[in-house]
Amino acid sequence: MTTEKHFDTIIDNIGQLLTMDHGDGPLKGEEMSKLKVSEHAALAIRDGLVAWIGTHEEAQSLKATERIDAEGKLVTPGLVDPHTHLVFGGSREHEMALKQQGVPYLEILKRGGGILSTVGATREASEEELLTKARFHLNRMISYGVTTVEAKSGYGLDRPTELKQLRVAKQLNESHPADIVSTFLGAHAIPPEFKGRSDEFLTEMLDLLNDIEKGQLAEFVDIFCETGVFTVEQSREFLKKAKEKGFSVKIHADEIDPLGGTEMATEIGATSGDHLVGASDKGIHALGETDTIAVLLPGTSFYLNKGKFANARGMMDAGAAVALSTDFNPGSSPTENLQFIMNLASLQLKMTPEEIWNAVTINAAYAINRGDSAGKLAPGRKADIVLWDVPNYHYVPYHYGVNHTHTVMKNGRIIYRKEKLHEHISAH
Ligand code: NIG
Ligand code: FE
């Protein structure tokens, strides 16, 4: 019997345990309010995997090398952040004044700033510099409870720099405990050398897919479908060709202007459509009818400050699967804090705590083809676990702007523990 075997670690005295173990597939529409909450629970780990889940009482007779007393805390799967621009050079704090003057995001880009300013800094940075910087941001994500991260390229817009960014993501995946899922976003903007020749630029980026495939440098292909960047038709053709080459596809759609990218994403069988702030009724309906996951990024709406957020409730009413993400990037969403996104989802997207937890775990995992390995705790699954310093799961989307994690585990090993105050302070 499993209970007689020895475990590596037992976490007992869990106040509330969320497993997200509600069957197969992403949760769609009404199913998103499902949440299995076990009180007074315990969980055992062996060889980096969840080996047993039961009650605190049952756990007392089990043997383990290490025992962690959760002290009544909330325990959940490690969070999954399914849309980030993790690898880039430089930063864009100098654009803050322009933002304050009301210069729109797309106008800054048109003037050669925005994404193109980061492209300059990323082209200049060495691979080593990019790796150090990306590791810094990734470590911060971990501290907020994230154990699996999607990372996009898209700040090279030329062969050497795009490949450099993708190699950095691959190196991070191999050298860091977090799991990284890589996306090629060469079609993120039109570089100055291709100004007025966007079709030629897309052909060049498609050509790069052969190298990417050979080096197994990315699993997804993405494109920024937006006014002044790539049209819906260009995006459709580009992603279709990427699919023919065997890549899964995603799309930055209807982020700023409502162009109809949402319905296009569903038509071509994209794994996810991301942003969708300006999604049409037709697009929202199509999300409910298909398997394309709506990855919503309320941090970007907050930071672009136009007062418009994605219609998450409408999408769930239509039967769509919704996931949430930071969109971590140096321009439209400079934050690694997925917990803040959970607060925004509550306040601005009117999502319930149950929907929010599913959106940052199991649905986020499906949005990056990791539904079978991340975002859920069950025997045989990876022991990616967060212990939260909160009394219940309603608390995280409620208490905003701070970090609620206590302990973060990846593959059964502790990779982050809440910093301790200096002795001098804690003594008083
Ligand atoms: O998801 N919109 C395109 N890409 C990012 C922003 C990138 C940037 O501003 O550097 C986004 O919002
Ligand atoms: Fe993005």
UniProtKB/TrEMBL annotation:
It is an enzyme of class 3 (hydrolase). This is Imidazolonepropionase. Belongs to the metallo-dependent hydrolases superfamily. HutI family. It comes from the Bacteria. Its cofactor is Zn(2+); Fe(3+). One of its GO terms (cellular component) is cytoplasm. Its main location: cytoplasm. It comes from Rossellomorea aquimaris. Residues 74-414 form the Amidohydrolase-related domain. Binds 1 zinc or iron ion per subunit. Its EC number is 3.5.2.7. Pathway: Amino-acid degradation; L-histidine degradation into L-glutamate; N-formimidoyl-L-glutamate from L-histidine: step 3/3. Fe(3+) binds at H83, H85, H252, D327. GO terms for biological process: L-histidine catabolic process to glutamate and formamide; L-histidine catabolic process to glutamate and formate. Transmembrane segments: none annotated. 4-imidazolone-5-propanoate binds at R92, Y155, H188, E255, S332.
